Amino acid sequence: MPGLTTAAAYGALGWAGFLAWLAVGAVWRRWQLQRRFASARAAPATEHDAHLTELRVLIMRPCAGVDHDLLANLLSVAEVDSRTQWRVVMTVDDPADLARPVILEAIPKLRAMGVDAHTFIPPQTGPNRKASMLAAIMASEQGREAEVLINVDSNVDLRGYDLDGLIAPLLGPRRGDGRVGASWAPWSERRTQAGVGPRASEAVLGGSLAAFPLLCGIDPGGLVGKLWAVRREALDAVGDFDELTDYLGEDFEMARRLRAAGWSIAVAPVLARARGGDPPFRAVVGRFARWMLVVRGQRPLLLATYPLLFFATPLILALAAVGALAQPTLAGLAVALAVFARALITISARRWSGRGEGLAGALAWIRDAFLSDLVLALAWVRALSSRTIDWRGHLLRVDREGRLHALKK
């Protein structure tokens, strides 16, 4: 027994030290990325900036069901900041979808504001309904004419969003990485309700290592599907987009194919905002379990890192508590390192998510740390225990090869 408790103390110390090293490295890389963002914004105008006014851009907004403030989100495109020649297409894949009346209400209002707005109902071609709608838009007349295509999920608020900042990385080569084929925007969720569910969702997306405004510094070559832009020639190089409907994570597969075709992916220097709704806590856990199921199906080895990195703090504290029976000093040092790492991650994620800086509101970041670790742990267990999910009333299953299948209820 003494040997086990001593091993627990050393294990907790090593784990906490690794987590602290990771936290410092993540913040350092994100800070370097922020400096590159600032340099890019301060750079003088180039021929690429002049090309913006001639660039044909299509904004794609696939919808399914009624998100919180859906009409406001759809209308927000009228206030986007862009010098390009852009138009917008909004779709559902079912005439009975509750989002369709909202789209039909938005279209004349957008046109009255001078926006070239369209809608149609494409047939569903695969189990991933979002990818199916995107494929149909890309194959439409508007899609074929566009030089850049931009996906904007239906809960994204585009008011004042710098769309040209999202597009800018696509207009020239990035040193050392080859030509940029796609760019994506780190995003955070703006909480609109006071319940435990909304707070838990906000905590994960704006107060943990899984917060995209922090995570983008660790994995800038990834692609997050909330808000992204892609060059038409890069899209053509990855094959038929319809093939991506067989994957739960169409963004993961698109990124893999882009890299395989020799294109690089860039993070845009503009934070995007999504409006949060009022989901129950159970639904929040289910949402992140669905995201982790993407990882399980398409990058399975990565799923093992979640308890080691993304919700490690409570596990380290539990291990240190056992180790304290034999080595209280080592266990205490492990606790100190774990708390330091978690505080650094939470405070940094909150800052780059636009939720506040520094040590102000200590209770808020402690709550974020607790809620985000709890949600991620429960979501991880659910993603490991089942390959089946319910997405907006549709039952789906990810097989062992990572392929998505629709099931009958």
Automatic annotation (TrEMBL):
Question: Which keywords does UniProt give here?
Answer: Glycosyltransferase, Membrane, Transferase, Transmembrane, Transmembrane helix
Q: Offer one example of a GO biological process linked to this entry.
A: glucosylceramide biosynthetic process
Major place of localization? Answer: membrane
Molecular function as annotated in GO = ceramide glucosyltransferase activity
Keyword Transmembrane helix part of the UniProt annotation: yes
| One Pfam short name | Glyco_transf_21
Name of this chain's protein: Ceramide glucosyltransferase, putative
How does the record classify its membrane topology?
A: Multi-pass membrane protein
InterPro entries associated with the record: Ceramide_glucosylTrfase (IPR025993), Nucleotide-diphossugar_trans (IPR029044)
Q: Which organism is it from?
A: Plesiocystis pacifica SIR-1
According to UniProt, this protein's pathway is: Sphingolipid metabolism; Lipid metabolism; sphingolipid metabolism
> Which interval of the chain is the signal sequence?
none
Q: Where located?
A: Membrane
